[in-house]
Amino acid sequence: MKPLFTVHAGEYLVGSHIEEKFKNLNVWIPSKDTGIDLLVTDSENKYSASLQVKFSKDFLVTHMEDTFQKGLVSCGWWTLNYDKIKASKADYWVFVLHSFNTKIINYVIIRPAELLCIYRDIHKEQKNIQTYLWVTNSKKCWEARGLGKKDQILIANNAYKNSKRELTKYLNNWVPVLKAVKST
Predict the structure, then answer these.
(1) Rounded to whole angstroms, how far apart are CA atoms 54 and 70?
(2) Which of 105, 106, 133, 163 is the most buried (most CB within 10 A)?
């Protein structure tokens, strides 16, 4: 077996987080690229959950005005392919948002089918989806791509309301993964 690729920062952060917080779980790295970045199993390796990991640098410090600095923790940006999400073999996609300022790491853990529904509602069925996930100081997560500045400021001020764009229920919610590996 020759190593064809290395673990990227997001995969490392997710694997480390799982090993630190859920000591009864094992984290595995596949030996070839199958669209699954990490495999999580129970301590006896009987039950598993597969993860696709997406990492973004934090755009808050480098690209956002002062208006947004106090209310937001991190802002990630990804380009996703609709067909790849639809065909994904992973049980969950994990978006990693590492805050440059506070060093806080947030995770958005979501099933690919749910992710598609959200993006279909917001961005229709575009082949390539540009997505901005923003995490606020009030521990909320929003899909902010395509919003006007007024709505962006509302997000930063914890005053925005739009159920189609809110991803808070997926923010740092590892419960579905734990249930999949029978760890709860």
Answers:
(1) 25
(2) 133
- In sequence order, which residues have a C-beta less than 8 Å from that of residue 106 and are 6 or more positions away? 73, 74, 96, 97, 99, 135, 141, 171, 172
How many residues are given for the chain? Answer: 184
In degrees and rounded to multiples of 5, residue 15 shows phi and psi of -60, -45
The string of pLDDT tens digits covering residues 18-77 is: 999 999 999 999 988 889 999 999 999 999 999 999 999 989 987 788 889 899 999 999
The one-letter amino acid code at 139 reads K
| Nearest alpha-carbon partner for 136 in 150, 149, 153 | 153
Locate the domains of the chain by residue range: 9-180
CB-side neighbour CA atoms (13 Å) of 168: 13
Could you tell me the end-to-end alpha-carbon distance of the chain, in angstroms, rounded to an integer?
Answer: 35
Q: Which amino acid is at 96?
A: V
The DSSP bridge partners found for residue 97 are: 56, 106
